[in-house]
Amino acid sequence: MPLxxxxxxxxxxxxxxxxxxxxxxxxxxxFYVRRCFAAExxxxxxxxxxxxxKTRSAAVSRLLNAVFDAPGVMVLLAIRVIALVCILFVxxxxxxxxxxxxxxxxxxxxxxxxxxxxxDGADQMNSIVLITTWLCTAIFENSLLLRAGLWxxxxxxxxxxxxxxxxxxxxxxxxxxxxxxxxFNTGTYGLDIVAQFLRGQPKLNYVLxxxxxxxxxxxLVALFLPLPLAIxxxxxxxxxxxMCAAIMGLNNFFWAFLSTYPALIYAWLDLHGR
Amino acid sequence: xxxxxxxxxxxGLLILWLVCSVILQFNPPWFSLTERYDLFMLLPRWTxxxxxxxxxxxxxxxxxxxxxxxxxPWIEIPITEERKPFSFIWNxxxxxxxxxxxxxxxxxxxxxxxxxxxxxxLPYLIxxxxxxxxxxxxxxxxxxxVLVEKLQHGETPAVQVVMISGSHPLQRSRxxxxxxxxxxxxxxxxxxxxxxxxxx
Lengths: 274, 200
What we know:
The complex is a heterodimer.
Chain A: H1 5-32, H2 45-52, H3 58-68, H4 70-89, H5 95-115, H6 121-137, H7 143-169, H8 172-175, H9 179-184, H10 192-199, H11 202-222, H12 227-248, H13 251-258, H14 261-271
Helix pairs in contact in A: 1-4, 1-6, 1-7, 1-13, 1-14, 3-4, 4-5, 5-6, 6-7, 6-13, 7-11, 7-14, 11-12, 12-13
Chain B: H1 2-25, H2 33-37, E1 56-65, E2 75-77, H3 93-110, H4 116-119, H5 122-132, E3 142-151, E4 158-164, E5 168-169, H6 183-197
Antiparallel strand pairs in B: 1-2, 1-3, 3-4, 3-5
């Protein structure tokens, strides 16, 4: 089975470009709502530090306050967005790429711990993609490493879709066809116009629920299918995430999960000896 | 030699990460210990909206207890963002609102509904901080908040109170840490206030 040695690093580049684009939007969104890191905001450090900070050292407290209070968070976000923009334009094995990726990962980990709440599946997939890329490109240029990392990202993507599908298959609410209209009927993840349309359409609801369940679960075998069918899964995934962004406001999922698709394509090609 | 060792190390790490990720999807009770140590949330949970899809909305309301004993009407603090036509690309309000729904979910999952354990928890303190800084802040007034679940599905939405706080004193022009968000003080005060404050 031939290894795609020269192309693997370019696949990481494509993955990181898609991932970075989404993360730039997400980071700018944090700047837009920066008031929530203020004392009276939902992410007030005064509140979080009361629970998260377990040090008696005044020096350590001062350092952590400097990093995690509102001004420090803005600095972390600024570093993140600059590093993400840099990633878009520099080659994978360059020093600039390694430094930028390291800074992005550090800012992601620090802010994940700092926030404790509010992260979602897209953020988790971004972390997986970023850290895997770092592990497989930052220290050594090695084709085995590249291959292992791409397979890991691909398998995490397969795990995410198939878990989501199987978890729905065991749910009576999903199997009865009520889940999608029920979720779209909420203020948190719904849209009035869509909820109203679906309200009197039990057969359509049923078809929508079962198509989501079956296709998501089907990702478990997508890598073993002929290429046209495998591509259909990816096209469905792209449309699915676009609809989730439009109806549910989950805009970051589109970029986070699409960034895994180059790895899925690589895994398919590797599996089928191309 | 070093490179080979590193390749083996990374390979082993990725395999371990993947195995742990798979195990976590089944949510075994003994594996939940990892949650405490997964500070950076690197172990993913991919069970989106399943097996129990979220078909309820949660509402956060507060009211003030005046010095003369009278009660102000309940005021709602929105915890969902208003969807705009371009929200599929740019949705910053989700960042500030999602934490509130996550915090509500964490409170409900904890199963703790009253007492010091509740009032010293991060989810409670986050909600309290938001509540005491919302709207008009009048000195000498005590503020109380409530979480209400509204099941949207069906013709007649079902409404139930899932948690009601004690009443916390408001102080003008004080930092958040002293403006009712003092866990120890809140625990003591709310223990006294919680029983009579339960009836809305």
